Amino acid sequence: MALVSERVLSIQSHVVFGYVGGKAAVFPLQLLGYDVDVVNTVNFSNHAGYGYSGGSKTTAAELNAIFETMEHNELLMPTRLLTGYIPGAEALTAVERLACRVKHARPNLVYLLDPVMGDAGRLYVAPDVIPVYREMLPLATIITPNWFEVETLTDIKLDNMDSLHNALKILHIQYRVPHVVISSIPLKSWLAEALPSTIRPPKEPSDYLLCIASSFPPKDSFTNGHSLHQPHSTIHAQCVPLIPGYFSGVGDLFSALLLAHFHPDETPETLHATPLSAAVSQALSKTHAVLVMTQAIANSLPEEERLPSDDELDKLNPLRKIRRMRGRELALIRGQDLIRGIGITHVREMMLWDGFWGDK
């Protein structure tokens, strides 16, 4: 559980129905003992996976007015900052300025920046947010990009181990991010073959995703862009079985749980663990448990609410897709004990990837 004095400022999307963005993050943070102040970057009826949504985006002027009033009233006092989906560059710049202010006021603030830009090779934000995110990276304590977002931030296509090495170096050294968690990488053959036996999955690699946690030495150990203590980051990784079907809000839940469990000043009990890998282990285990419960609930629904994806049939009858989406919203309320850690029978421990860097 968090200390009573811990307070999170969460800046991300809001939907009326379902669990993505803040709706997937705030409740878990509160369950784990955090006070949460919430700023909505959009106010939509539902997530875009339904095919149609209504609502509005919060403008940069509106965000600035909220931040300035909170500051004036001495209400801007987070110990942790969480930012997620912000669709445009002007609004993102307003959030960047806010992040600078709160970091200046509280240098030890833990800032988890989730650079929500796209997935599976496709951007779903305006392209002009990319350079703003790059400017924001040095402010972050932890970032949680997926593989496509890593490629977007670093301009490196992840297709072999050298490219993965180079992308992590750019994020750690050029952008000075201490902790990088690549939340989900498809386990292609080049990646599976590089995994040590302690991490390699027992079955077909394509049935798994890989989560990688990379911790670099503290920023005060840098000189001229290089570390004084070790040449590379410490890498932990773990494979997670793919669960069939489409889910939304998974990354938002994972990032919130990671922030909740990250305690940089505590020494983990597990051998070879770091504060980051210990937090990722908890976030990964709880997120997967909630997904398993969500899948079980979806499979128990009436047949018309669990019909398989079919673009042509979905176009002819939009309610077909809507019913399917509705049945696959994250089971956060029914799974709240899992979020607290009750009933988690297996912790997916992040394993040290010894030899990740080789001779590089």
UniProtKB/TrEMBL annotation:
Keywords: ATP-binding, Kinase, Nucleotide-binding, Transferase
GO cellular component terms attached to this protein's record: cytosol
The EC number(s) this enzyme carries: 2.7.1.35
GO molecular function, one term: pyridoxal kinase activity
Record domain Pyridoxamine kinase/Phosphomethylpyrimidine kinase: where: 83-183
Keyword Transferase in record: yes
InterPro entries in the cross-refs: PM/HMP-P_kinase-1, PyrdxlKinase, Ribokinase-like
GO biological process: pyridoxal 5'-phosphate salvage
Sequence similarity: Belongs to the pyridoxine kinase family.
PANTHER family: PYRIDOXAL KINASE
Full protein name: pyridoxal kinase
Species the sequence originates in: Pholiota conissans
